[in-house]
């Protein structure tokens, strides 16, 4: 199920700086939440496993069934909507898992995504949106008059924006280190590809061309790449969000949907 992934020198340098003990593995198959059957294989490549135990009481009564996979006392690695890379600090040492779906992406972009995961591990950021919101998620859902799946997607976007507020200074700093110039260039290039879509985002939402949820996801990417955001998403690019976290996200949702 797992094969150790060779790391480029620049990615290895990021690991040495931010998460020196972390392991990086390719997975044999794609997953949203790592199957229980694969956890046995995972215990063969790490020294210890300690479940985080997300509390079922954190979920509002009306929530997508997929979220039931995230609660309880089991080791949960990954979540629906995670993308090509998952990571966890529920293992000792921490582990980053690269899924097969990433194949075909440009090498520099893949290297950036792996490096990004290592930075997140080192900053001890929340692995899942539920680890970010915790018992405040019910308040976020109450402030968001959308169907449960859309509410979940908005919560993912809000969590990604929060994480981006923490990681982007690291990415920007790579411009000053010769051994990570390619990673910095990949971060900048991805941001330049997003910027044109952000520039017309307000009009696209108003016209119905883009859903509010898709716009929030794009805005969260904009936070990570330190781009200018239109209202009301610009409020997610605020030092107060970094300081106050989930409660700020609830207040933002209340203002947006009031």
UniProtKB/TrEMBL annotation:
It comes from the Archaea. It holds the Pfam family DUF7089. InterPro entries: DUF7089. This is ABC transporter substrate-binding protein.
